[in-house]
Amino acid sequence: MTTDPGQDAHPSGLDALDRRIVGLFTADPHVGVLGAARELGVARGTVTARVRRLEERGVITAWSPTLDPAAMGHPVTAFVTLQIRQVSGHDAVTAHLADIPEVLEVHTITGDSDLLVRVVAASNAHLQRVLDVVTGHTDVLRSSSVIALATQIPHRTLPLVAQA
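Above: the chain's sequence. Below: its structure in token form.
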């Protein structure tokens, strides 16, 4: 018989206590370990050990604040697909993109394009300048972009946690 309050393990490796810990810290990042222990009714050491294990497994990847680019003067969001020269690979283009502050994410994708890039800008004119820099690398062969008009569902992971 196990005495672990987090029993009820799921194939994802997240048990009921892990899900409650992640949910609590997501809902209230300022709760702290002691506050979480009190809220969850478990020992402080249990929360600390669980959080450490979730970090080691890569489930929790950061404790940094979530920033809103629009609130920082960049209300325009665009998604850009890039076709790149296959001989050189992704590394040179990815390094180029990493040097552009307005580039928030880059993903290797399947289909007609090779990379999906999320960029932000202060205005449409600024977006044009960002796109010129993004596509200015010699290994970028073609690009296509779309401007996001509204965010219907912001980045989220809690539904996955609840399902786990």
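The two ends are 23 Å apart (CA to CA).
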